[in-house]
């Protein structure tokens, strides 16, 4: 037991020394991994069933989470302290920090940031490169000894997309916490059948027959990327801050063909292009029978569609003779451990605790937050939630979008061109020119 307690303390000190002694993140994380491997070799005889020590450690930790989750997180902290009460005397302070702003706050002073913090998945790469995240892989010994699970168990317990979002260069850097930041299709089942909503062709035909419309935001690179991702195109982040993007080339089909398919949709009288953030107002207007949106518009859709309230994955769209499943952007919430934590082993155990199956179930029960945990996602409670079930169904086609700052304006402008019909679907040369211009603008380095 003393060896295992010493292991946790040694791991923490090794992390601090590596982080303070080297400002290069790549080398820093490598040192942590090498130290952990050496410790694992010297502790091969450690049991995965730990007995309580004769003298408990004093462990101080800080944790940050969203303001609206403070009461829930405090309850999780209390249960963590109770669970591990035989091993340590805990002083765990809870602070407020939104997942959406976590990166900006943390990178102002990484050493002063919390030991454990939640953040949006698109912030992972910047946090890793700044040396603000400890590799969860390096905490495998502590997880096995105290939580009775390995990093592989954590990965297999959660949706593949959430694990990919928490991974950088084949290394896991955070614990998946939720998987509910994405979009899907709401529809009125009193107007549309399941067969109608399977494809954009049948969806728009049925909506037109009913005198209704189908709404989607196109003037946004978060939404219009869904067609390109579905067709096999990609985006990525380069070292200079620019975005790698191949939409003007050929994947499963050509970029031109994808745009032509989008123009076929927007040119239909039953389609309504909606400004970003205005979907709920359009749903409430009563003119829609379907809309592409996320869980944040669940109340508006339920009130407007009444007994017909339903949701499902996005439709397929037609390119030539084939139907292509529309993709989407999949966003996740993650929990990481600060690489400067003085109690990194216990910090990892706390991060694991607040993201485990039981606490993901609590998150859903109390706040209807979509779980990344596979068992919770497959539960009757989650599957009976119309919006969460649709999001879960669409997640199989979701892409974790990683882009630079110059991605947004060109893609918004391009989406508006498609929404307004500024491009002629039969003028392939003009479409190709527009795609080339888009890619040039998106690919420019961030100043």
Q: Could you describe the 3D structure shown?
A:
With 447 residues, this protein is of the alpha/beta class. It is built from 20 helices and 18 strands. It has helices at residues 2-21, 25-42, 70-83, 102-108, 124-129, 140-147, 151-157, 160-165, 200-209, 225-230, 255-266, 279-284, 298-305, 344-354, 357-367, 374-377, 380-383, 386-394, 408-419, 428-443; strands at residues 57-65, 88-96, 116-120, 167-168, 171-172, 175-181, 184-188, 213-216, 235-237, 243-245, 271-273, 288-293, 309-312, 316-319, 322-325, 328-329, 331-337, 398-399. The strands form six sheets. A five-stranded mixed beta sheet has the order 2-1-3-17-6. A five-stranded mixed beta sheet has the order 11-8-12-7-13, with helices on both faces. It has a two-stranded antiparallel sheet with strand order 4-5. Strand 1, helix 3 (70-83) and strand 2 form a beta-alpha-beta unit. Helix 11 (255-266) packs across helix 20 (428-443). It starts with a helix and ends with a helix.
């Amino acid at each position: 037991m003393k060896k295992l307690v010493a292991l946790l303390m040694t791991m923490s000190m090794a992390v601090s020394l590596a982080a303070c002694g080297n400002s290069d993140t790549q080398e820093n994380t490598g040192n942590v991994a090498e130290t952990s491997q050496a410790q694992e070799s010297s502790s091969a005889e450690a049991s995965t069933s730990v007995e309580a020590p004769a003298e408990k450690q004093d462990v101080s930790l800080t944790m940050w989470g969203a303001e609206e989750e403070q009461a829930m997180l405090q309850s999780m902290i209390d249960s963590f302290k109770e669970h591990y009460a035989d091993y340590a005397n805990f002083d765990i302070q809870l602070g407020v920090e939104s997942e959406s702003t976590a990166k900006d706050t943390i990178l102002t002073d990484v050493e002063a940031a919390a030991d454990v913090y939640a953040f949006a998945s698109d912030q992972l790469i910047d946090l890793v490169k700044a040396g603000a995240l400890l590799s969860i892989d390096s905490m495998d010994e502590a997880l096995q000894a105290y939580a009775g699970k390995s990093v592989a168990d954590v990965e297999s317990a959660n949706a593949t997309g959430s694990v990919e979002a928490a991974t950088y260069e084949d290394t896991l850097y955070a614990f998946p916490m939720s998987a509910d930041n994405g979009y899907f299709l709401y529809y009125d089942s009193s107007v549309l059948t399941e067969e109608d909503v399977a494809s954009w062709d049948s969806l728009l035909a049925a909506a037109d027959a009913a005198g209704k419309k189908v709404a989607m935001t196109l003037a946004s690179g978060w939404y219009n990327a869904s067609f390109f991702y579905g067709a096999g195109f990609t985006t990525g982040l380069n070292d200079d801050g620019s975005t790698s993007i191949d939409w003007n080339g050929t994947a499963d089909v050509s970029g031109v063909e994808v745009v032509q398919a989008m123009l076929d949709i927007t040119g239909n009288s039953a389609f309504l292009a909606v400004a970003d953030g205005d979907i709920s107002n359009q749903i409430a207007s009563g003119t829609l029978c379907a809309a592409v949106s996320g869980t944040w518009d669940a109340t508006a859709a339920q009130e407007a569609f009444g007994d017909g309230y339903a949701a499902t994955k996005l439709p397929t769209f037609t390119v030539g003779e084939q139907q292509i499943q529309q993709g989407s952007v999949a966003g996740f919430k993650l929990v990481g451990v600060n690489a400067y934590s003085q109690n990194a082993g216990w910090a990892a155990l706390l991060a694991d605790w607040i993201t485990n199956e039981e606490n993901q179930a609590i998150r859903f029960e109390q706040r209807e937050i979509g779980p990344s945990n596979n068992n919770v996602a497959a539960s009757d409670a989650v599957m009976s939630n119309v919006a969460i079930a649709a999001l879960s169904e669409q997640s199989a086609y979701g892409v974790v979008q990683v882009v630079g700052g110059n991605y947004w304006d060109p893609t918004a402008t391009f989406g508006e061109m498609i929404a307004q019909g500024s491009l002629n679907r039969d003028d392939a040369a003009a479409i190709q020119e527009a795609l080339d211009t888009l890619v040039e603008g998106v690919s420019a380095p961030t100043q």
